[in-house]
Amino acid sequence: MSDLLIGLLGALLATNQPAAVSNLVTQTTGLTVSIPDPNDPVEKEYHKITADDDAAQAEVDGWIRDNQSFAKEGGGIKANELNAKIRRRFDGIKQEYTDFLAKHPNHIGAHLAYGSFLNDSQDEDGAIAQFETVMKLDPKNPVPYNQLANEYTHSGPVDKAFGYYEKAIQLDPTEPIYYQNLATTIYLFRSNSVPYYHLPEQEIYNKAMKLYEQAMKLDPNNFELAQDVAQTYYGIRPTRTDEALNAWTNALKIAETDVEREGVYLHFARFQLNAGRFAEARHNLDRVSNPIYNDLKTRLEKNLALKQKEAADTNAAPSAIKVETK
Known about the structure:
This protein is mainly alpha-helical. The protein is 75% helix and 0% strand.
C-alpha cells in the first residue's frame, strides 16, 4: 500500500467509522481494504502484544549496547549468559503470540507480526511458516511474498526470492520497496540471476537499474533510496561513469542537509577522478568542508594528485635520444 494511501487512512480513521472508511477507499482507489475496528477487544489484545514486542526489542537492544560498553571497561557478562537472558525475555513475547493465534488462527496481522518477531529472533524456519500461513489465508496479500523473499535472500534458494518479489509486485505494483528489493537481489546475486532470467550480465545490470528506476518513480523524494541506487554503479563493470553521475545528481536534488549534499560531492569526485576528469573532481572536493568527511576527502585529494601526476608523466614529451658518434 502506498504512503499516500496509508496517510489517507490514518487521517480518515481519526474521524470516521472503519466501515465508512473502507467504503470510501474502495470508491476512491478501486482497492478493497479491510479496516480493523480499533475498539474491537481482539484488536486491542493484538496491539498490546505488538507493543510488548516493540518494548522487548528495545530493551534487548539496550542490554546489548550496555554489555558492549561494560566489556570495553573489563566488565559485562559472558555472551552465553546474555543470550540466555535475551531468550528468556523473548520467550514471554513468543508465548503471547502463540496464545493469541491459538484463539484467533486467521488473524493476518498477528501472523505477519509473529513472523517478523521470529525472524528477528533468528528463527527463520518459524518465520517462513508464519508468512506461508498468511499466503494461504490471504493469497492476494503482497506482504508475505515480500517477507518470504527476504528470508530466501538470506537462507536460499535465491531463485525463490526472485519469484516471490515478482509476485509481490504483481499484487501491489504501487509499493516501491518491492521493486527496490528485487533490484538489489538481482544485482547482488548475479550468479543466480543470470541463469534465472536467461540474460547476460550487462542485461542483468540493466534489469536491476530499471527496477530501481521504477522504485524512484514511486518514491521520488526518498534520499536513502536514491543513494542506494547511485551506489550500485560502484559494482558495475565496465564503469558507467555518466550514468553514475546522473544517479548521484538525482540524489543531490533531493538531499535535505549539508551533510547529505557534501557526501554526494565526494561521490561525484570519486567517479570523475577515476574517469580522468580531474578539474571536475577538484571542484567537487573543494565543495566539501564538513569535518566528518576529512579523512575521505584527504584520501581522495591524495589519489587525485597521484593520478594527475601519472597523467602528466604519460603525456610528457619523450626525452631527446642521444646518438653516439665516433
